Amino acid sequence: MNRREVVQEISARLDGICRSCTIRQQLQDSLQPGGQKDSTIDRYCIKQCAVGKELQQLGKKLGAKDPLMPDEQLWYRSPKRRAAFYQTCGGSR
User: Fold this and answer.
1) Cβ–Cβ under 8 Å, residues 4 and 72
2) 23, 49 Cβ separation under 8 angstroms
3) Is residue 90 part of a domain?
4) Helix axis angle, 50-62 relative to 3-13, nearest 10°?
5) pLDDT tens-digit map of 32-63
6) What pTM did the predictor assign?
7) How far lies 80's CA from each of 32, 47, 65, 93, in Å?
8) Cβ-Cβ contacts under 8 Å for 2 (sequence gap 6 or more)
9) Do the beta carbons of residue 46 and residue 56 sit within 8 Å?
10) Is 88 in contact with 8 (CB distance < 8 Å)?
């Protein structure tokens, strides 16, 4: 799995599973505004949620020191490739 596929997988899981998570929504509703809401939710996602643990494993793949594939090293030099990359990842630059 190359970096692009890993980023796409992470994005798909965040958009598909995490946004519709009922436990996350319950935590948001039960915690006081302005308190430790975000850190409590993040702690749950990191330590207890199976999807959060999978996301951590995918994130470790991004941080690996493996050399990039030759085509990945040059993707940013082409404006068309750069635009296509950000479009598939849902971002804009």
Assistant:
1) yes
2) yes
3) no
4) 160
5) 666 666 777 888 888 899 999 998 888 888 87
6) 0.57
7) 46, 40, 27, 12
8) 68, 69, 72
9) yes
10) yes
Is residue 17, in this structure, part of any structural domain at all?
Answer: yes
Domain tally for the chain?
A: 1
Instruction: Show the tokens assigned to 46.
Output: 């990191």
Parent domain of 12: 3-66
The answer to whether residue 61 sits within a structural domain is: yes
Amino acid 89 reads C
- State the alpha helices, DSSP H only, in the chain: 3-13, 22-30, 37-47, 50-62, 70-73, 79-89
* Rounded-to-integer distance, Cα 44 and Cα 81, Å: 37
